[in-house]
């Protein structure tokens, strides 16, 4: 087993608007939907369904990020168009954070919104995506601290989303994986409930199922205020070592 996934509605929300994609061993994604009624579910579902169809076969290294960016922009256009077709879909959108992992040495990322990717390297947790959110922008501008952002009543306001406008800016970048032990993709339902220090501690467990249960239990025990979804990829798994 290379990866493990967990998702939960949590204690407060009526529906689970998170969607995940686990296509072992090479393609993973998280989408956290938003919008009235069931629109958030529709947006995240459609985004992941479109993402599932991507075929990276035959792409050289230089072509992967442009292909990922174009694909996510196409998904944005489709969801934007869908949002105009029904009144109750108006205003729907979703985060979308995708990771393509062709081998053990590098990963390619396409990212919109405030879902996150972390790497555990040398036992130290590091966030590699940037949040596209109102409070994250204030932190980057040094107008508020990270601690203030964590308790802000506007921390759920995102500045980029799939389907919220006809076009979207997509962050794309490559991660070199030398020394990386695990990769974590997660919605903010995890990170708003469990501190990075605690996530780092739990990810140190070598047993994927046990550490996934530990992360979910931590988020639920802390309140489970939102949908909670995450994917953990173990780069030290035996399947990688055989290659």
How are the SSEs ordered, and which strands pair?
Elements: E1 3-8, E2 18-23, E3 27-34, H1 39-52, H2 61-83, E4 93-94, E5 96-100, E6 106-112, E7 116-121, E8 124-127, H3 134-140, H4 146-151, E9 171-176, E10 180-186, H5 188-191, H6 196-203, H7 208-221, E11 228-234, H8 238-241
Antiparallel strand pairs: 1-11, 2-3, 3-4, 3-5, 5-6, 6-9, 7-8, 7-10, 10-11
Explain this structure to me?
The protein is of the alpha+beta class and 243 residues long. It is built from 8 helices and 11 strands. The protein has helices at 39-52, 61-83, 134-140, 146-151, 188-191, 196-203, 208-221, 238-241; strands at 3-8, 18-23, 27-34, 93-94, 96-100, 106-112, 116-121, 124-127, 171-176, 180-186, 228-234. Strands 2, 3, 4, 5, 6 and 9 form a 6-stranded antiparallel beta sheet that branches. The chain has a 5-stranded antiparallel beta sheet with strand order 1-11-10-7-8. A hairpin with a 5-residue loop joins β5 and β6. The radius of gyration is 17 Å and the shape is globular. The two termini are 14 Å apart. The model has no long low-confidence stretch (mean pLDDT 91).
Task: Give the gist of this structure.
This protein is α+β, with helices and mostly antiparallel strands and 243 residues long.
Q: Residue share in helices? A: 25-40%
Which outline best applies? globular
Number of strands: 11
Average residue-wise pLDDT: 91
Secondary structure class reads alpha+beta
The low-confidence runs, each spanning 5 or more residues with pLDDT under 50, are none
Strand content is 25-35%
Query: Helix tally?
Result: 8
- Give the CA-CA distance, first to last residue: 14 Å
**Would you list the SSEs in sequence order as H and E?**
EEEHHEEEEEHHEEHHHEH
Q: From the alpha-carbon coordinates, what is the Rg to the nearest angstrom?
A: 17 Å
Largest sheet properties: 6 strands, antiparallel
């Amino acid at each position: 087993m290379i990866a493990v996934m967990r998702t939960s509605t949590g204690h407060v929300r009526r529906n689970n608007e998170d969607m995940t994609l686990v296509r072992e061993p090479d393609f993973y994604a998280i989408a956290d939907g938003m919008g009235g009624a069931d629109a958030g579910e529709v947006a995240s579902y459609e985004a992941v369904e479109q993402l599932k169809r991507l075929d990276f076969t035959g792409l050289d290294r230089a072509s992967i990020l442009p292909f990922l960016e174009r694909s996510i922009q196409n998904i944005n256009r489709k969801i934007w168009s869908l949002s105009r077709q029904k009144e109750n879909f108006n205003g729907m959108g979703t985060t979308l954070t995708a990771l393509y992992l062709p081998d053990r040495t590098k990963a390619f990322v396409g990212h919109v919104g405030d879902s996150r990717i972390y790497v555990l390297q040398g036992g130290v947790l590091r966030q590699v995506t940037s949040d596209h959110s109102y409070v994250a922008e204030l932190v980057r501008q040094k107008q508020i601290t990270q601690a203030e952002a964590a308790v802000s009543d506007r921390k759920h306001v995102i500045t980029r989303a799939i389907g919220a406008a006809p076009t979207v800016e997509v962050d794309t970048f490559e991660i070199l994986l030398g020394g990386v032990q695990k990769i974590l993709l997660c919605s903010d339902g995890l990170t708003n409930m469990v501190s990075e220090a605690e996530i780092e501690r739990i990810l140190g467990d070598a047993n994927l199922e046990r550490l996934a249960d530990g992360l979910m239990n931590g988020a639920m025990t802390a309140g489970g205020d939102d949908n909670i979804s995450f994917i953990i990829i173990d780069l030290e798994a035996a399947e990688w070592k055989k290659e």
